[in-house]
């Protein structure tokens, strides 16, 4: 089996390559290819010389010069793709509906193993035609109008239910209940069931899941500093006094999100 790795982050590519070799020791690994252009050239060379295409593609979505969907619209690959992404803004629901695997970074070994297991099950009974239909539907979904996010959130204040506008939300935090902390330092109870639910509702360009307990607004962040362990310590703007910890594994994702925002 030949696996093509498309990934523009060197450390992530190195980690994925190591995991692939551990989980699929008999596989031949090609790449990593770092950009849409490099991938297009790779497929062009293989098709021009009648070299076989990969059996499986392990592909990041956001590359240095665009999104990998542009590759697949052009080349229409015959093989399955396991997508990886640091963000959940790329029609994650569509991946589920079309039975195409996706993995959120940082990729966990057991999740990658499950994706490989799914690939092997597909090989036993699926066809490239089936997969091409799924990929076509996926690309149509991600080309559709972008998802609408909530910009107003309900919370309890005294005996009333009150709206809190997105720009007034500093962060959400889970402590048995889901609390909403406002920019002016108020702590309000919400009826949201989980931070996972809120992640689906909030704009990923504005909010990021800092850790398992907190979902923070970009505009509430005063800055961050690196810890010797590789973690990041995020400082919030006053009057909030909370410092949030970003794990070592998510530090690179946070830096990119914070700088782009």
TrEMBL record:
Gene Ontology cellular-component terms listed: cytosol; protein-DNA complex
SUPFAM superfamilies associated with the record: CheY-like (SSF52172)
Domain called Response regulatory: residue spans: 2-120
TM stretches of this protein: none
UniProt KW Phosphoprotein keyword: yes
Annotated positions of the 4-aspartylphosphate modification: 60
Source organism, top-level taxon: Bacteria
Keywords: DNA-binding, Phosphoprotein
PANTHER family, A to Z: REGULATOR OF RPOS, RESPONSE REGULATOR RECEIVER
Protein name as annotated: DNA-binding response regulator
């Amino acid at each position: 089996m030949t696996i093509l790795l498309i990934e523009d982050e060197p450390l992530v590519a190195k980690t994925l390559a190591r995991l692939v070799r551990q989980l699929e020791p008999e596989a031949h690994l090609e790449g990593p290819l770092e950009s849409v252009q490099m991938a297009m050239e790779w497929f062009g060379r293989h098709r021009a010389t009648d070299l076989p295409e990969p059996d499986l593609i392990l592909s990041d979505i956001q590359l240095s010069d665009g999104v990998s969907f542009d590759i697949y619209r052009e080349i229409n690959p015959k093989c399955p793709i396991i997508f990886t992404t640091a963000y959940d803004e790329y029609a994650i629901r569509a991946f589920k509906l079309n039975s195409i695997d996706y993995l959120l970074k940082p990729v966990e070994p057991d999740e990658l193993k499950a994706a490989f297991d799914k690939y092997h099950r597909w090989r036993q009974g699926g066809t490239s035609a089936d997969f091409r239909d799924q990929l076509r539907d996926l690309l149509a979904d991600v080309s559709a109008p972008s998802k609408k996010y909530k910009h107003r959130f309900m919370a309890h204040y005294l005996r009333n239910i009150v709206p809190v506008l997105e720009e007034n939300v500093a962060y959400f935090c889970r402590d048995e209940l889901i609390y909403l902390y406002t920019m002016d330092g108020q702590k309000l109870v919400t009826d949201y069931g989980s931070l996972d639910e809120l992640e689906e509702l909030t704009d990923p360009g504005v909010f990021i899941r800092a850790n398992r307990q907190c979902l923070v607004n970009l505009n509430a962040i005063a800055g961050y500093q690196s810890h010797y362990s590789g973690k990041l310590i995020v400082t919030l703007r006053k009057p909030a006094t909370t410092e949030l910890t970003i794990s070592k594994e998510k530090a690179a994702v946070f830096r990119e999100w914070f700088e782009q925002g």
